[in-house]
Write a structure and sequence with these properties.
CATH class of the largest domain: Alpha Beta
Number of strands: 10
Radius of gyration: 17 Å
Strand content: 25-35%
Number of helices: 10
Order of helices and strands: EEEHEEHEHHHHEHEHEEHH
Shape: globular
CATH architecture of the largest domain: 3-Layer(aba) Sandwich
Distance between the termini: 38 Å
Largest sheet: 6 strands, mixed
CATH topology of the largest domain: Rossmann fold
Helix content: 25-40%
Length: 233
């Protein structure tokens, strides 16, 4: 498979503070990666670094073989990096359908196709962003990223704070998207086993460094290793 994203020895953080140190990994076109670790180890910071929203101290970041270290965030989005932030960032003055149409870019993902995956959003298409439940907001955040027709979708804690029935709905949709292989996916998820069931590869961060990398299936087969790497001490 062709390399889509390649990160080499990334050291990054905020201001003078270093959060990530010497982080390297790759994502193939159509690939899937679980990004795991305890709270505060740098998972979200890594996604923000990919989007150009941290201070990169050193390292290389290439996208489809081209250096994107100096590329601004909006250019990275235009190039195909789709981001679903933990905060969701709903616009209270926009309807569901306006959230989708305002970011639409040419490609296979349309509003009609998004509604096939998220029929609840079609039912709520005239509702404003702040009139949605937490689960509906998360569905909309993912749907909005799909409307940019990404080559890589970054999902930051997509299951956080949601009711179990909504978690199951999202798991089904995300699983279908990953298996389809139309674009690559990186999933940050506190529920490590959920993320591993969705992805092919996995890396684990600790104190801003990669301490483990393997196939997701292999890590699932060794629960004692998984617990040691991600369980809260």
């Amino acid at each position: 498979m062709a390399k889509l994203l390649s990160a080499e020895r990334l050291t990054a953080g905020y201001g003078d503070s270093i959060v990530l140190e010497d982080v390297s990994f790759e994502v193939d076109a159509g690939g899937s990666l679980a990004l795991l670790g305890r709270n505060g180890v740098g998972k979200t910071t890594l996604l923000l670094t990919l989007m150009g929203l941290t201070r990169l101290k050193s390292g290389n970041l290439s996208w489809e073989g081209a250096d994107i270290v100096r590329l601004p965030t909006f250019r990275r989005a235009q190039a195909g990096l789709g981001w679903v932030p933990q905060e969701r960032f709903m616009f209270p003055s926009l309807t569901v359908e306006e959230h989708l149409s305002v970011v639409a870019r040419p490609g296979p993902w349309s509003i009609a196709r998004v509604y096939q995956y998220f029929p609840k959003l079609e039912e709520r298409k005239q509702n404003l962003g702040n009139q949605l439940s937490g689960g509906e907001q998360q569905m909309l955040a993912i749907a909005r990223a799909l409307m940019t027709n990404p080559k890589l979708l970054l999902l930051d804690e997509p299951m956080e704070g949601l009711a179990p029935i909504i978690v199951q709905e999202l798991l089904k949709v995300i699983g279908e998207l990953v298996r389809a292989g139309e674009f690559a996916v990186i999933v940050v998820e506190q529920h490590a086993r959920l993320a591993l069931t969705l992805t092919r590869e996995a890396i684990v961060l600790d104190r801003g460094q990669v301490v483990h990398r393997s196939a997701s299936e292999e890590l699932l087969k060794h629960p004692e290793t998984l617990d040691r790497l991600v369980a809260v001490a």
